[in-house]
Amino acid sequence: MRGKKVLGLASGGGQQMPIFTALGAECTVLDYSDRQIEQERMVAQREGYLITLLQEDMSKPLPFPDDTFDMIFHPVSNCYIEEVKPLWKECYRVLKKGGVLLSGLDTGVNYLFDEEEKTLINTLPFNPLNNEEHLRQMQKSNGGIQFSHTLEEQINGQLEAGFTLLSLYDDTNGYGNLHEHNVASYIATRSIK
């Protein structure tokens, strides 16, 4: 990773970039949340490494020239934007040829169930901008506005943007009823430009 340029896309908070910088990468974080940016800044200052921090909206065109990054690390954060296919096109644009996109994706299963994960209460897509009950649930949970996305949007969206999918990994929530029944709620993909 020494000298490689890494974009932490909607990955503020000081959780992943310390690892990439320790490996020698030059890291940039783009996040919409001022709290996540501030947490990232605090960790960088505490650990003594340089990082570029940008507070921007990933649903808009990314503020970087074409072919800027060697890697994009994008944790489960597409749930905060309504349309994901334009983001995949932007990721493809700002990655160098041969660049890697590591992305975490919510399968939508979590939006189907109540808080105890025992009763189906919603239909998909989960979209608080189009469904008042979904909006009430988001307001009650204080989880911000979130959206479900299909695997077609998430994975085929990467392929339509030009990426080649190299590997895929699925995982559970790590706790709760769905986890106990081994229901995968998340997918991680590794794609290349």
From TrEMBL:
<dbReference type="GO" id="GO:0008168">
    <property type="term" value="F:methyltransferase activity"/>
</dbReference>
<dbReference type="InterPro" id="IPR013216">
    <property type="entry name" value="Methyltransf_11"/>
</dbReference>
<keyword id="KW-0489">Methyltransferase</keyword>
<feature type="domain" description="Methyltransferase type 11">
    <location>
        <begin position="8"/>
        <end position="102"/>
    </location>
</feature>
<dbReference type="GO" id="GO:0032259">
    <property type="term" value="P:methylation"/>
</dbReference>
<dbReference type="InterPro" id="IPR029063">
    <property type="entry name" value="SAM-dependent_MTases_sf"/>
</dbReference>
<protein>
    <submittedName>
        <fullName>Class I SAM-dependent methyltransferase</fullName>
    </submittedName>
</protein>
<keyword id="KW-0808">Transferase</keyword>
<dbReference type="Pfam" id="PF08241">
    <property type="entry name" value="Methyltransf_11"/>
</dbReference>
<dbReference type="InterPro" id="IPR050447">
    <property type="entry name" value="Erg6_SMT_methyltransf"/>
</dbReference>
